[in-house]
Design a protein that fits this description.
By secondary structure, the protein is of the alpha/beta class. It has helices at residues 7-18, 61-65, 91-98, 112-130, 154-161, 175-185, 230-237, 256-269, 286-296; strands at residues 30-33, 47-50, 143-148, 165-171, 195-198, 215-221, 241-252, 300-311, 315-318, 327-334. It has a single domain (90-334), classed as Rossmann fold. It has an 8-stranded mixed β-sheet. Helix 7 links the parallel strand 6 (215-221) and strand 7 (241-252). The protein is globular and about 50 Å long. The protein starts with 6 loop residues before the first helix and ends with a strand. The relative contact order is 0.15. Residues 1-54 and 60-82 have low confidence and may be disordered.
Length: 336
Amino acid sequence: MTPRPNAAPQLLRRLRGANPAVALHSRGLRPTASAPAPDAPRRIAPRVLQPLPSRSFTSSPDSASSSPASSASSSASPSSSADATFTTVSPDEVSHFNALASSWWDPHGPSRILHLMNPLRHDFIRSCRSSVLDATPPSTSGLTYLDIGCGGGIFAESAARLPGTKHVKAIDPTPGVLAVAKAHARRDPGVQGKLEYLNTSIEKLPVPEAPENKFDVVSVFEVLEHVSNPAEFLDRCTPFVRPGGWLVMSTIARTWMSWFTTNLMAEDVLRIVPRGTHDWNKYVNEDELRGHFLGKRTGWTDARCMGVIYVPGIGWREVQGSEKVGNYFFAVRRAA
């Protein structure tokens, strides 16, 4: 049945009358929770649709003009921003993930879907690297990785175990989570000498001056949707990729379907993800990433994308075209 043309305005007026918070915002739509009256019994409030402006995928003018992504021999500083204290790290996100630290390595706990996703991360990296002829192959001693926002080390530790890996440097600004990662790595003698953890943000990590000291793979898995400014954040990551190397990431598209699956179903209904983990307004669409690297920046090529869907009881599966509605992997290669 086709709704009447004036149905949406009538619904919005009803929402405003039922929830004063709705009247504070009048553009865009985003799920949120209504606060109960002071004397009302405590209960879990359902999410309602509430207006909210959408975040734009842009970086500051200084960062864009001085971005080191245009050449492999960039300046050692990630950005020429005048504010040396600038960070894309969100304190709320750090607090949220600190609270999850103790359960990070529980394969049936709150991080279960990350454990299930990890094999696909390696599959995607292998497919990217095998898709082009590398004019500047990595050292015969093995690949080097920089894992940004490594969390408890699920990917970093698994990458260090690979026989073709020379070294993995993994960083995260969340001290509680990183302590768990270090403690877990100490239990595996196979990663000793190959895995290094640092409690820092990408803004504070020194960039290697020599191209040969940069990384074959820079990974940013499930991080982009948790930072304050995604474009600025990526501009801080790109100087670490060696010529011919790959910047590989995974994130979530900003669509109604992703809100339904990741916010409503995953957090509120199925409870397979802790509530408050995702902010729909921070999601990033695949075309925004493609436009950023291939349109607004130079020196990047061979963009790759793979959409994935989580099937409860089965796990993650690659589904062609699903990058337009939900979770996906994205990668670009620095021109050699």
